[in-house]
UniProtKB/TrEMBL annotation, chain A:
Every VOC domain range: 10-154
Protein name per its UniProtKB record: VOC domain-containing protein
Organism, as annotated: Rhodococcus wratislaviensis
One Pfam family it belongs to: Glyoxalase
InterPro entries in the cross-refs: Glyas_Bleomycin-R_OHBP_Dase, Glyas_Fos-R_dOase_dom, GlyoxalaseI/FosfomycinResist, VOC_core
UniProtKB/TrEMBL annotation, chain B:
Name under which the protein is recorded: Uncharacterized protein
Superkingdom of this protein's organism: Bacteria
């Protein structure tokens, strides 16, 4: 495990392009209630033919921000019938792959999740799916730019053994993908070796930590 | 020997419990993992565990000298390699 100091503080901003700033403001500010907290009006400059643009930011809680770029006069780029304002895909690209890249915004409670569901369901962008995964519950929709947005809550806190398990999974994954024939079977076999090597010692360490805090 | 590891978290306890109902199967712990061992195949019925699909299809943590020969909505079967 890494011994490097971990001093970062979450997402400053994540930025996407938009060809529909009016729809984007309606969706994030008026439907979801995310305040506009910053914007930059910039004339195009420099050697490239950079268009004039507006860079605008919504507060998504925790002082984190979701930002957009709108470029005056820029038309959407081709690339296929599927996807969003940033990425277009050919017909044969599977939907699980297209949906893999998405933004998930956290809420603390079921009431908060249902409040956002209510806001979306009353809009032109109703909730498309509500799913309970193992330990989280999420709602999903696509914003006016086609970007998939998830709002999610934890059904229970993540336990220390899940952090151990995640690290063993990732060490096993790195091992098998640098080997000849990556597969789930290879990963689970490698992970069993790591469990045998490390899990008992981890448990002892946890127990002595607990003793020390008593 | 068939050996299956399952992380001991609340969602997975039924997987280990149902596996252990087979008298040929022994279940113990290695750190925070259930170690489920048998001299023959380990077969776990999903509906008996009550696991939803997302839990069911992510419940296996490791396989020692073993391989999964069935993992669908009905059951999981682990055989010696």
């Amino acid at each position: 495990m890494s011994e490097l100091q971990h001093t970062v503080k979450g997402v400053d901003h994540v930025a996407y392009p938009t060809f529909d700033p009016a729809g984007t403001v309606k969706f994030y500010r008026d439907v979801l209630g995310f305040p506009v907290v910053h914007s930059i009006c910039a004339a195009g400059w420099g050697p490239e033919k950079h268009p004039d643009f507006i860079h605008f930011f919504f507060d998504i809680g925790n002082d984190d921000r979701l930002a957009f770029f709108y470029y005056f006069g820029l038309e959407p780029f081709d690339g296929g019938p599927q996807g969003d304002s940033y990425s277009r895909f050919a017909e044969d690209v599977p939907i699980f792959f297209i949906r893999s890249r998405h933004l998930a915004i956290h809420v603390d409670s079921e009431d908060d999740l249902m409040e956002y569901r209510h806001r979306l369901d009353g809009s032109a962008w109703p909730v498309e799916m509500q799913i309970q995964h193992e330990t989280i519950e999420s709602i999903y929709t696509h914003d006016p730019n086609g970007y998939m947005i998830e709002i999610t809550r934890a059904l229970r806190p993540v336990t220390p053994q899940e952090d151990l398990d995640a690290n063993l999974t990732i060490d096993a994954l790195v091992d098998v993908v640098t080997g000849p024939d990556p597969s789930m079977d290879a990963l689970l076999t490698r992970k069993a070796e790591l469990i045998t090597e490390r899990a008992a010692a981890w448990q002892q360490q946890q127990e002595s930590k607990e003793m020390a805090t008593r | 020997m068939t050996t299956l590891f399952v992380l001991d978290v609340p969602e997975n306890t039924a997987v280990a419990e149902v596996a252990g109902r087979d008298p040929a199967v022994t279940v113990d712990h290695v750190g925070p993992y259930f170690r489920i061992v048998s001299d023959s195949d380990i077969v776990i019925d999903r509906r008996t565990t009550g696991c939803r699909h997302a839990v069911w299809y992510s419940s296996v943590a490791g396989l020692a000298q073993s391989r999964i020969t069935q993992w669908d909505k009905d059951a999981m079967r682990i055989e010696p390699r």
